[in-house]
Amino acid sequence: MPIEIKELHIKASVVERKGDAGAQQLPAYELEKIKNELIRACVQEVLQVLEDKKER
What we know:
The chain is 50% helix and 0% strand. By secondary structure, the protein is mainly alpha-helical. It has a domain at 26-56. The longest helix is centred in the C-terminal third of the chain and has 28 residues, at 28-55. 0% of the residues are buried.
């Protein structure tokens, strides 16, 4: 019998470490570009899921 997940909660905690030698600071425009790409990808994924549900 398949299991259907109707709701999924994801909790994350992001902590900025001060003085991390491996960390790089990106310019604001680069961060904005990455953020927009992530949002676009998420929206596409949600639209695809909705389209798949509509076909059923």
